[in-house]
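Ticket #4471: structure output looks truncated?

Reporter: J.K.
Steps to reproduce: submitted the chain below (466 residues) through the standard prediction queue, then opened the result file.
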Amino acid sequence: MNPKGLAPHSNIGASPEEAERFLAAHPEIAGVDLILTDPGGVMRGKNIRREELMAIYRHGRYMPGSILSLDITGEDVEETNLVWADGDADRLCHPVAGTLAPALWREEPTAQVLLAMHELDGRPYHADPRHALARVVKRFTDQGLTPVMAVELEFYLLDTKPGPDGKPRPAPTPGGHRARHIEVYDVNLLGEMWPVFAEIHSCAKAQGLPAQTVIHEYSPGQWEITLLHRADAMRAVDEGLMFKRLIRGVAAKHGMQACFMAKPFAGRAGSGMHIHLSIADKDGNNLFADGDKPEGSLMLRHTIGGMAATMAESMLIYAPNANSYRRFRRTSYAPVAPTWGINNRSVGLRIPAGPPSSRHIEHRPSGADANPYLAVAMALAGAHYGIERKIDPGPPITGNGYEQAKLGALPQHWSEAIEAAENSEFLKEYLGKGFFDVFLAIKKAELDRFMAEVTELDYQWYLRTT
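Returned output as attached by the reporter:
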């Protein structure tokens, strides 16, 4: 069935020829996972059979708009007005070009494709986070500027069985070694875990994902794999989401659980999602470079100025969950203030060392639990805000940025971040008020539901003492 006002195939999504070529090249594929990313960053959708795919590329697929109203547990948030206020109405989802790819970790030969949701008349659905990013990117492209970026994720590989204390623990390597010490950059441990990473690389190659360097990070069982920069912000973030799902899938195949919580262990490092960004002109020149100057160009400093000025009110995007705020501790490699520096990991906005042609910003506040569409949208929004207003970030931090950070410069807790976001005209302007209202309603509902739970710590602290 074709919705009124749409041709058999509009220019909203990917072309049917993309699906035809894919199916011809992969006769073994039996099913396809349709994936829609909700405001919380959770991938939701359904599995279809091979013979259903072409109809979706020609006409789209109806799904309830309430999928984008769900909290982190999958429960409706009626305050979004996306559930019963409109009778839980369907919207139309279209495939995202370039994201149809085999999911080689699945037992049955399966593919996957990302979706974006639209109104029945073709307008972008206001609650879809991918559209929020697209609106911010358009501000740059309308000015002849191209964000060049990559998403870098840290994560833990955990045992599917808890430890003797009932809590999560690092997964043993295929050879049986279980990391108990930090062992940062340990190549022997990397070698022992290589069967997992070799399959991750193989699956990434099949999906066209530019996975590169693998390192063991600053905690037992914590890892990082870098993705190559793209001169296409939408594609770069799609790749970040696809890669996150791929890591989960391959880990599960090897009897492990990939964990992207911001802070799964109190005494160990949290997991961040670092956003690497530069801006190119229409000829591909890096506008952040200025000869051999390590601090880069005036545009780079204005970008930092805008990112720093808007960081506090954007923290609900970068750190969207209760657990997110456990990550921000001094000397933890997570930033505690909107500071910047050159070749300095104690700040929130870092200019990495490298030749002038590679001059870029590493944006460090986001946790691995953040929605990549939204985190990148707000990092870019901060950049645009600073460039437009020529904001001076002040001198860079030298030495230990934690010692020089102003306490309270960023929200310290989830409730503070929600309040800062609610009062932010910047977020409403760049995310769009429609999306902003949905996201804020979800986060307020989550806070209320989270605080209503009685935890094990409540019993430990208060059962006998009050």
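Triage note (M.O.): checked the attachment and the full token line is present. The domain at 136-431 is CATH 3.30.590.10 (Creatine Kinase; Chain A, domain 2).
Status: closed, working as intended.
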